[in-house]
Amino acid sequence: MCLGLGISCYADDVRAKSSEKLGFLCCMYDLGVFPFRIELVGAWVDHPFISGVLPGSVVTINVVNNFKSKSGLASSSRDVAKKLWPTGIPLVNLEENAKLLFDAENTPEKEYISGSEDHIGIIY
């Protein structure tokens, strides 16, 4: 099923054990189908001026479709991810991947940080 959608499938040691119990394979998106993310609930908590006043949780989902750039679907974060991982997102250490993506997009000279929800949504 995954291959028909342009998704490469493999299982690493950590996820394979839990995946086998659930009966599915771990999949890695190919470049052509890097996921877009939609914040379904609780957006903007990655900005300190929001989360400092009203902290909370975010529900982020990934969608695969053809959207225009700058449509609020993490297009800049996706572009950075494509540069970091030209062959697709590695599924070995998701938390480290999210941190790496955040650091790559939020360079020291950038005035405002953003995208942590995007990075977590894309990686997970």
Itemize the secondary structure elements and their pairings.
Blueprint: E1 7-9, H1 13-22, E2 27-29, E3 36-41, H2 48-51, E4 59-63, H3 75-84, H4 94-105, H5 116-123
Antiparallel strand pairs: 1-2, 3-4
Helix pairs in contact: 3-4, 4-5
Overall description:
The chain has 124 residues and is α+β, with helices and mostly antiparallel strands. It contains 5 helices and 4 strands. It has helices at residues 13-22, 48-51, 75-84, 94-105, 116-123, and strands at 7-9, 27-29, 36-41, 59-63. A two-stranded antiparallel sheet has the order 1-2. A two-stranded antiparallel ribbon has the order 3-4. It is globular, with a radius of gyration of 15 Å. Residues 9-31 have low confidence and may be disordered.
Structural class, by secondary structure, is alpha+beta
Distance between the termini: 20 Å
* Biggest pleated sheet: 2 strands, antiparallel
How would the global form be characterised?
Answer: globular
Overall mean confidence score, pLDDT: 71
Number of E-type strands: 4
Helicity level, as a percent range?
25-40%
Q: Tell me which oligomeric state these chains represent.
A: single chain
Nearest-angstrom radius of gyration?
Answer: 15 Å
* Strand order in the sheet with the most strands: 1-2
